[in-house]
Design goal:
mainly alpha, Ribonucleotide Reductase, subunit A, 3-stranded antiparallel sheet, 13 helices, binds fe (ii) ion, RNR-like, Benzoyl-CoA oxygenase component B, oxidoreductase activity
Length: about 475
């Protein structure tokens, strides 16, 4: 066996070359990662040359280096945002103490669990999206899909680095287990529900990257506050990549809507059947997909009242989104928060201790952030002179986790009976027929500059390249 110089092969700013233990751990893990990528990464694409962004350093000039690369040869790097001198823990019981550079013994199990749960979502999404390349609507979109995929792979590396560097033998075992679970698998599924759903078509992909990658943004932002400094610095750098994933989602949905509106105006109709016959996705179906992805993503934030969330915060492991911008005492022992509950078949607000409601606090921040893009989508519809408007459903709609689990609530926030739910399910959530229709549109369009009929071209290309640039070369 020839030995690989991992410190050179893996771009990094964590001094890999100076850490023999870590190098040995990576030497064992890296070939398993590559064989996982070949099995579960983008299907049938291993030999393509893809115009990809690779991070080669963390400074603004270095993390967006573009070139053609075959994906199995992508240089998955390990990066941390620069250390902040004398950084202190900003919240919880250890507030004001120096941030930890090593794992505190008492928090070891919880930190490991937090890192494993985050790490598990990264390969999961690659697995969920692995068939999409076969039905890409353009070379531009295909490249964006692959960019998201390799970066989720890098996020896995980021979490595996933390496990192997800071958690010894259990860390190495967890790193292996991250390659063992499979999205949707009966026996060994991914940890979180939404990451076991399929991403069967490109509308689902765009909704996923808009909503579910945004959950990633909020989880990473909360971890970027962590008192465990290596976790804070690692997740901070991951956020720079997450922004592109959400851009792919927001612009993707926007282009779907733009194309549909153009055909609505051309044919002077809002009849979904006529629009479908013309090969575009009716806005009602877009709304149903939105309802589904939004509600499934809300569940990812966990139960609305959680003693774990309280403990993670008080212990200084996981903060709030933009902890530093908040003017309270950052300990929250006396603070309360309004959450929604159910009382006598109606939704009612009640005050609970804020520490226990921190999942809900983060979920509410996510909701505010999500609405922005939806109003930008509505601008596209408005500009086309069409009266239809998209909206996010009520937060109690279609929930499986927390107080609302199993409760039947309409998108406008009314608790409804079983009968009304049954009657409207096909209006509120994507039906098998919707999915079959969207699937029927998915053909492969990859000639540079050409786009599938159901989606408008983007206003500009990637990295200032023209739209008709050859983003993927097939070999
Ligand atoms: Fe990620
Ligand atoms: Fe992502």
């Amino acid at each position: 066996m020839t030995s690989i110089d991992y410190s050179e092969k893996i771009p990094n700013n964590v001094n890999l070359a100076g850490d023999r233990t870590l190098q040995r751990a990576l030497e064992q893990w890296q070939p398993n990662f590559i064989s996982w990528w070949k099995d579960m990464g983008p299907e049938g694409s291993q030999a393509f040359d893809v115009y990809l962004r690779t991070a080669v350093s963390v400074d603004p000039g270095g993390w967006a280096h573009f070139d053609y690369v075959k994906m199995p040869e992508y240089r998955w790097g390990i990066f941390m945002s620069p250390a902040q001198q004398d950084r202190q823990i900003q919240f919880g019981e250890h507030k004001g103490q120096p941030a930890w550079q090593e794992v505190p013994g008492e928090h070891r199990a919880n930190l490991r669990r937090i890192i494993v749960t985050q790490g598990d979502t990264e390969p999961a999404s690659v697995e969920q999206q692995r068939h999409l390349g076969l039905t890409a609507p353009s070379s531009y979109d295909l490249r964006n899909l692959f960019q998201v995929n390799v970066e989720e792979g890098r996020h896995l590396w980021a979490m595996v680095y933390l496990l192997q560097r800071y958690f010894g033998r259990d860390g190495r075992e967890e790193a292996e287990a991250l390659l063992g679970r499979r999205s949707g698998d009966q026996d060994n599924p991914r940890i979180l529900g939404a990451f076991n759903e399929r991403t069967p078509d490109w509308l689902a992909f765009f909704m996923f990257t808009y909503f579910t990658d945004r959950d990633g943004k909020f989880q990473l932002s909360a971890l970027a506050e962590s008192g465990f400094d290596p976790l804070a610095r690692t997740t901070k750098f991951m956020l720079t990549e997450e922004a592109h994933h959400m851009f792919v989602g927001e612009s993707g949905v926007s282009r779907v809507i733009q194309r549909t509106c153009a055909v609505m105006n051309q044919l002077k109709t809002d009849d979904p059947q006529k629009l479908r016959a013309a090969g575009v996705i009716d806005l009602e179906t877009v709304q149903r997909y939105l309802n589904f992805h939004y509600s499934v993503t809300l569940d990812l934030f966990g139960a609305d009242q959680s003693s774990n969330a309280a403990m993670f915060y008080s212990a200084g492991l996981k903060g709030r989104f933009e902890e530093n911008k908040r003017s309270d005492d950052h300990q929250l022992k006396d603070a309360s928060y309004k959450i929604l509950g159910v009382d006598g078949g109606a939704l009612v607000e009640r005050e609970v201790p804020m520490l226990n409601a921190l999942n809900e606090v983060l979920r509410d921040d996510f909701i505010k952030d999500s609405i922005g893009g939806v109003s930008r989508w509505n601008k596209v519809i408005e500009k086309a002179g069409i009266p239809f408007r998209l909206a996010v459903p009520h937060k109690a709609f279609n929930r499986q986790i927390g107080t609302f689990a199993g409760l039947k609530v309409s998108p406008d926030g009314r608790v409804v009976g079983q009968e009304e739910w049954q009657r409207n399910q096909s209006v509120w959530l994507p039906t098998a027929e919707d999915r079959a229709f969207v699937a029927s549109l998915m053909g492969r369009v990859v000639e540079p500059g050409k786009f599938a009929n159901w989606i408008a071209p983007p206003p500009m290309g990637i990295n200032k390249q023209p739209i008709e640039f050859e983003y993927v070369r097939f070999n």
